[in-house]
Amino acid sequence: MLFGKDKNKTASGNSKPYSLTPCIICRSTGKVNCNSCDGDGKIFWPGVSGKNYPCPECKGTGQVDCPVCKGRGYN
Ligand SMILES: [Zn+2]
Ligand SMILES: [Zn+2]
After folding, report:
1. Does the residue 28 lie in any domain?
2. Would strands 31-33 and 42-44 be described as parallel, antiparallel, or unpaired?
């Protein structure tokens, strides 16, 4: 029986890019939590009481491009 060989090939038939490995820092999302606001997107500005401001580091999104993979998600 020669069919077994073909069956195996089909099971792993997805073509993945060679030499690229998923980034473990951002878990291949390309984004990591912002350090400045701890992923909150807002920071409490010292001296201005009772007001939160959008974090200038992540522009209020709470996430920044992964420094390791530069936002690609793969290395
Ligand atoms: Zn931030
Ligand atoms: Zn990354």
Report:
1. no
2. unpaired
